[in-house]
Protein: D-serine dehydratase-like domain-containing protein
Organism: Podospora bellae-mahoneyi
Amino acid sequence: MNINYLVSSISRQTAKPREPHNLFEDTSKMDSRTSDASLKEQLKSRFVGKTLDQVPTPSVILDLAKLETNCNGMLEATEKLGLLWRAHIKTHKTTELTRLQVGNDKSTPVNIVVSTIIEAENILPLLKEYQSKGRKVNVLFSFPLFPSAASRLADLSAQLGPDSISLMIDHPDQLVSAATIAHTTGAYPPLVFIKIDGGYHRAGVQPSPSFATGESTQGDSSHPSEVLIDAVLEAEKQNKCVLHGVYIHAGHSYGTRTDWAALGYLAQEFQICLDFAEAIRKRSPGHKLVLSVGATPTATTIQHPSIISSGDNNNGDSSVQKLKEFITAQSKTENPFSLEVHAGVYSTLDLQQLATHARDSSLLKADDIAISVLAEIASLYPSRGKNSTTEALINAGCLALGREPVTDKGSIPGVDYSGWGFLMPWGGDLTSNPTPGPDFPRVHPGWQVGKVSQEHGILVWDGKPEDEIPLQYGQRVRIWPNHSCIAGACFDWYLIVDSRSKGRENEVVDVWPRWRGW
């Protein structure tokens, strides 16, 4: 983390006229080695106790109550089903939310996923804290291994000890870099997940068609997946790595639009991983392996009431029955595969997740979204919008909200929600702003961000002109973003509120610095 940059940023964003003793007025006196803890305390002294009407805009806000609910839901579901849990921390890049994701007071293993090495380096103190309390820790670097990453990962391995670092491998050439880690003084052979392409086509090796039929045997094919398996097993024999499991990410499950449809993708993920793992065991009988599946839409479907209940009622859902049978079968197998679920954005949620309908409205609704971007209305343009409705300028464009859409999956293109954020029902007349409901994204009335450029966002009204809720110059608004990972990346820290504090829901109770960089 570039502390001087962050402290300078605090000074620029929070400078107040006629206050000669601004806390961060003289940043030249700040030691370049200022710790994260020191930075956090300075941020807290500046913001805690203020309300959302008193902080700079744009700011990114997290609701602690909703974060805890979202995180506890996944911990409880995986525990009830006996599944391993691996929390992805790329969404938020903070120590504080990582604690919630892994269960700060639990004794279970702390398995996390990172997308950048800077995340692993910054979470290192927390992992050492957990190790001191007897919890096993493991960090999976989820980007397929590239050469320049090896030295930093080797340093992490040396600090955390054996079996603490996992790598993602989807090509044999990457094993050269894995060996570099294993041969670094003080480091240990890394654990390896073979990354499988389950149809999303972002990363991963495509499984051989023979895996699904059970026909794969050593040396019978030049298919890239079989070549990769042989290469990893050979590297394992040479003590360059340890083949730990197979990993799949159903990113295409973000395109589901009906309740619980993502459950079918989860079943597919497990089956693809099982077929792949069995192909490995044909070459290496009895090899212990983890089948790691997930993306927030698929992973959260394990919260289906019929799955986590102890009864046999499946409500006629074949996907529920199939998944329960799969989990049960593994628990009864003589040499079972370990089943692991991974996810990240479930902790904050966003409009993309709401659009998936991965769960029904009893478990997934707009009010569960824990992240919002606070902005101000800088200008109003009466009659400029559709059907002579008003448009309004806010000081939050794509550099505050991101520019990643909710994919249009509607039967008629252009009808579904296509904005860049949706106004929360918060503040004054906007408490009556329509909330995205069970028919979202097909039905999406209310104020939303219709256009963005860098710093500019344009609010547009979707609905009848006579139903338009009036806006005012200087009014503050909170916006649910399309994708919380991208929206959060635009800021250096989160302001934390707690909606459980009745009468003080808008008061800042904490500040969580974010890690930046790669």
Notes: Residues 1-34 have pLDDT under 50 and may be disordered.
